[in-house]
Write a structure and sequence with these properties.
The protein is built from 7 helices and 6 strands. By secondary structure, it is α/β, with parallel strands linked by helices. A 3-stranded mixed β-sheet has the order 1-2-3. It is elongated.
């Protein structure tokens, strides 16, 4: 289930980047292409099986907090701990002059482990997560957990960086399912825009 969710998010991100590419300048596209190359170089370094390079097969270093492309189309690598030490390690296989480093609280490994723990509790009857949490993921740009819940997080997680979507208040606003509103509809819209642009 988790693998399907990660793959769905990856597809949605890829489609949104594809659609976004039509609305940005050549310089911005060049920066985003360079960011993709840098990210793939990192994944290649962190995957033991070079024939199967992916996020799911990577063993991320403890200093890595995540990465994203900011509003200026620069590639940002989030670091836990010493940025200088992390940059020195990364300089072995990427051009660190082409990235921006940002200090964050949690490593990608910590975020993943906590999301996995909550996901497991969601499958365990009687736990607060099973009773109140409908979806858990990672908000990489904000170095936080993303939790869809109908209640407070006491007994669910003690992480400080958490983006909460209150499913109880969302349900009051609209009777449709939260999954449709938060995942399927934007994805369908992205696909429709992408297909319309590609036909031109």
């Amino acid at each position: 289930m988790k693998r399907i969710f990660v793959l769905a998010l990856t597809l949605a991100l890829a489609l949104s980047l594809g659609v976004r590419a039509y609305a940005v300048s050549d310089a911005a596209r060049e920066k985003e292409s360079a960011a993709f190359d840098i990210y793939m170089a990192m994944l290649t370094e962190w995957c033991s099986d070079k024939s199967n390079v992916s996020d799911l097969n990577a063993v991320f270093p403890d200093y890595y907090g995540g990465s994203y492309i900011n509003d200026e189309h620069d590639f940002v690598i989030q670091i836990v701990g010493s940025i200088d030490e992390a940059a020195a390690d990364l300089a072995r296989f990427i051009d660190t002059d082409k990235v921006i480093f940002e200090e964050v609280k949690y490593s990608w490994n910590e975020l993943n482990a906590e999301a996995d723990r909550i996901s497991d509790e969601m499958q365990t009857p009687g736990t607060k997560a099973a009773e109140t949490v409908s979806l858990v993921g990672i908000d990489g740009k904000n170095n936080s957990l993303l939790i869809y819940t109908s209640s407070d997080l006491d007994g669910v997680t003690d992480f400080e960086n958490v983006k909460v979507v209150n499913t109880a208040s969302e349900a009051e606003k609209s009777p449709q399912t939260g999954l449709c509103l938060s995942v399927i509809c934007p994805l369908a819209a992205a696909i429709a825009v992408f297909l319309a642009k590609s036909k031109k």
